Amino acid sequence: MNKSIILVGVGGQGTITTSSILSKGLIENGFDVKMSEIHGMSQRGGTVVTQIKYGEKVYSPIIGDGEADVIVSFEKLEALRALPYLKEGGVIVTDTREIYPMPVLTGETDYPGDAIEQLKAVVPKVIVVEAAKVAEELGNVKAQNIVLLGALVKQLGIDGIDWKAIVAKSVPAKTVDLNLAAFDKGYNM
Amino acid sequence: MSKMIMSGNEAVARGAYEGGVHFAAAYPGTPSTEILENIGGLYKDDIYCEWAPNEKVAAEAAYGAAIGGMRSMVTFKHVGMNVAADPIFTAGYAGANGGFVLVSADDPACHSSQNEQDNRLYAQHAKLLMLEASDSQECKDFFRDAFELSEKFDMAVLFRMTTRVCHSKSVVELGERVDSPVKKYERRADKFAMLPATAKKRHIIVEDNIIKAREFSNNCKYNRLEEVEGAEIGIITSGISYQYVKEVFGNTASVLKLGLTFPLPDKMLAEFAAKYKTLYVVEEGEPYIENAVKALGFGHIIGKEKLTIQGEFNTKVVSDALTDAAEKFTYKVENANIPARPPVLCAGCPHRGFYFALGKHSDKFVSMGDIGCYALAVNPPLNGFDCSICMGGGFSTLVGISRALKAQGDTRKAIGELGDSTFFHSGLTSLIDIVASESNVVAVILDNSITAMTGHQQNPGTTKNLMGYDTPAIDIEGLVRACGIDDAHLRVFDPMDQAAADEALTAAYEAEGPFVIITKRPCALLKEVIKANAGKHVKVNPDKCVGCKLCLKIGCPSMAYDAVNKKAVIADVDNCNQCTLCMQQCKLGAIEKVGE
Predict the structure, then answer these.
(1) Whole-model pTM?
(2) Which residues in chain A have Cβ-Cβ distances shorter than 8 Å to B243?
(3) Which of A135, B249, B369, B410 sits most deeply, having the most CB atoms within 10 A of its CB?
């Protein structure tokens, strides 16, 4: 049975890097993997969605409404936005981080500060990971994505992959120790 | 051979390498850009590659290489093919010497484009052999083969992709580079000197080539029948739609999967259509295959009658249109407030400086925008321009609209803005028209020293090229002056300098005749800019801030309003690069520099 994972965040948060690391690990484990992302304006603060499907044989690279087993959200408003993707019984893993979009910055509308409570009211399984905070404590908020990767990998329960070796190969050399620590924190949360 | 996960674009670059390509040119455009970026990054020792000023130049440069005997390629996004159409139609008649392949990356759903044009229609129109891949493995294999096909049938090849094929990643098995020596160049005026007498003869030859290619299309590995015994439904499809069909129908329908889609395999289509009473064609965009099947006499085929011409497909679209499957369960939060998150100009973006200044003069100007990052200035709070048509249109439209405004007694002046890369693309010829027509307009070049929107590609104004080598930078100001713009009609300044911008816009409004503004400040995301500004940002002094929100009017994503304390705050210190625009806005000196 194929699994579908959606990663959502805001441009610059490292969702695409995370998806790449995840794909590499899944391929090493012998799965057929397809990953989809939309570039173009992602550096400019827009919503970024990357999708990963894996299993014995994957056809469509796109995940539709009601099809995602797991949604990993790097920002809590984006978890709320991505909700329609979640399949019945699916899991949301979300950070508590808030990044205000322009209509909130200009005072046009309010930020839904209770996004996680809203999600918990309708979705049985919402896992809250304070990844940005943990990464900041480790010394760099940019490692947020690897904390979330650790939490996701644990959630997926795929054994037999040396995730840390893949992380080490995929991040800048100077940040290997930081990112390995971030992965452990996320995995053990 | 090793396996890798690759995007369609990465796979095409690999296919170019394996297919023995010698020459590649392009103008960047989403979703095609990464093809040449990957060739420049990985294969430049074997493939000469360049960013050309525009798609027409890229196509001509590449076609010159093909005439000379090299296997050559050009890539562009779908609308770029319109720019390149002139040489492409001639290449359609003249054919190849070295194989010549064009990549069109179409963008159904307009993820980052101004229309949803379906460039498959070009293949038939310009007489180009056409290949369509449906995953990255096919991208690599088909693209590698495209050069051989071009040489075999003496036709230019259109390799047609869509956003989801370009940007989806899947597993690819790699191969070796074929040995493809550059073919000898010999004068062939009867083939390549496309004067009327030649064209008439070549038209006969190309129609004959199409007949041969159609025969091949009926018997090639690119068009494949996946027959399911006992199935009552037959589906014809190509490209990414094939994946959706397989996922929805599995082994409950027979599929005719097309990869060589011009010339279409007429016999295969007829045989398949005759066999299935329930016959669907699943294709995004125009009814290209559908019309061909109908023309063969199979009116029972169902395509656009059930599947939309709009946007892109997915499994849900296909399933909803063609099956009785129940709608999938989804979770819903009732009455959720989900603020939109539109892409915005970055913190410290030079374009914000110019458009904020222009806003202060909005009663004096009608503003025409163009294609690039600055297009994001159209949104509130900047509301930077009224129209955006195409590359270069920001200047050329001024010639017409200025006269239309004058004719209706509107005293506002027409002003148009485009970036450095867009100026080289087609803004220069537009400026020439402005000067030649003595139009009373203002032409603004927002020079941020890079092609930014597509992710920082070099252009003729930069000092490095795609292959990483030093190149002479073309001088924009020199070009403007060479067009006849004198000191009185020219201002060059840093767009963050609001006093200079105010002076320039006032002078531009009062001047008679063509006036040019060049703003110069590099993109805030360039590595060297980020490095130079490391540690620099601003902070709001809460003792001085009275919460007037004037600073928020610049629409900077690093600034926010703290409603509890009723003060402005720098919410995102990391991305603030101390551009000072907010400081210039504050009348109380409440915003201060940190880490100067």
Answers:
(1) 0.95
(2) 59-61
(3) A135
